[in-house]
Design goal:
The protein is α/β, with parallel strands linked by helices. It is built from 15 helices and 13 strands. It folds into two domains: about 140 residues, NAD(P)-binding Rossmann-like Domain (Rossmann fold, 3-Layer(aba) Sandwich), CATH 3.40.50; about 150 residues, Dihydrodipicolinate Reductase, domain 2 (2-Layer Sandwich). Strand 4, helix 4 and strand 5 form a beta-alpha-beta unit.
């Protein structure tokens, strides 16, 4: 049934992502009533930005005292399962930052809790909702057969981390490109025989080839400037999607003299409007997934995704992992084994 009340929302985790969740949930019509964080000053600082919000140091206190009906879990990954299960068992619809939990079995347990309680459970993977990418989804047939599809990310997030922390960061970014490939190619994305070409504390590179199409995922902690891009190369055109700045450009492959003469002017024009925002917009400043989650609630569609979409949430079914060589289980489960376990098998 559709919700017949305002989406009273609790933000669990008052860090950077918690702040963005609170901002965009509010813009999408939610009422922020609770902010939970063990750091009392941080919880109070975020709660102060919303007139009806109260700060709590624990989720248990929030559930006991507030009227929240929706939870946004923005805490560290190792806390996701405990916080999400606590929220779902209390009857709250729950949206969590990726990945859903620290392994595939825990992810399935969260989905079971959501289905048994008729609650909506989602994972925030914003890239597939961005306008430039959605435009590619609509127009990809006009680009002919795909020849190469490459996702490339360069992040400064590893600065200050030790070697183990940098390795872990690369693997925790991985749900983003896999969710993009899943949106483009469906189940083929996680059934593909991905090959780990490089995995160290500076670079992560995954390659696959499906029906003559070369797929690549390149994640770098060294490359500068920071970027988050998708390149689609087809037999009749190409697309360049810049997730970091929120735009995309689709180029048809007309092989004419006028096309050759005009391309140096047309291509910069396609990206110029986004340039002023380079230093003003956060990497994942994208309310689209929050809006989609809100629509599911208000439209009375609390059903959580089917198991075959678990890869987009952050973990696949156990049966899916059995199809893979041991060293590639991490590619599918994202965090189903520790990064050290994976790297020891390379």
């Amino acid at each position: 049934m559709p919700l017949d009340h305002t989406l009273q929302t609790a933000i669990v985790g008052a860090g950077l992502m918690g702040e963005w969740h609170a901002r965009y949930a509010s813009r999408c019509g939610a009422q922020i009533v609770s902010v939970v964080d063990p750091d009392a000053s941080r919880a109070q600082a975020l709660a102060a930005k919303f007139p009806r919000a109260t700060a709590y140091s624990t989720l248990a206190a929030c559930l006991d005292q507030s009227d929240a009906r929706v939870a946004h879990v923005c805490a560290p990954t190792n806390q996701h399962f405990a916080l999400c299960s606590q929220a779902l068992e209390a009857g709250l619809h729950t949206l969590v930052e990726k990945p859903a939990a620290s392994d595939a079995l825990l992810t399935e347990r969260l989905l079971t809790l959501a289905r048994d309680g008729d609650r909506c459970f989602g994972v925030s993977l914003q890239l597939r909702f961005q306008d430039g990418f959605r435009d590619l989804l609509r127009r990809r047939e006009s680009l002919g057969d795909p020849i190469r599809v490459e996702f490339r990310a360069a992040t400064a997030g590893g600065e200050g981390l030790d070697q183990a922390g940098r390795r872990q960061l690369s693997w925790e970014i991985l749900p983003h490109p896999l969710s993009v490939f899943a949106a483009l190619f469906g189940a083929t994305a996680w059934e593909a025989d991905w090959h780990v070409d490089r995995a160290d504390d500076q670079e992560l590179e995954l390659l696959a080839e499906i029906d003559g199409t070369r797929w690549a995922i390149l994640l770098s902690l060294r490359e500068r400037p920071r970027s988050l891009k998708l390149e689609w190369r087809g037999s009749e055109g190409r697309a360049d999607i810049d997730f970091y700045h929120g735009y995309g450009a689709v180029h048809r492959g007309a092989n004419t003299r006028s096309d050759k003469l005009g391309r140096p002017f047309i291509e910069p024009a396609a990206t110029w409007p986004a340039e002023p925002s380079v230093e003003k917009q956060p990497t994942l400043d994208c309310p689209h997934s929050y809006r989609s989650f809100t629509r599911r609630l208000t439209a009375g569609r609390p059903r959580s995704p089917q198991k075959k979409f678990l890869a987009s949430l952050g973990s696949p079914t156990p049966s899916a992992t059995r199809l893979l060589p041991k060293r590639l289980i991490w590619v599918k489960s994202l965090i189903a084994v520790t990064s050290s376990d994976l790297l020891s098998t390379l």
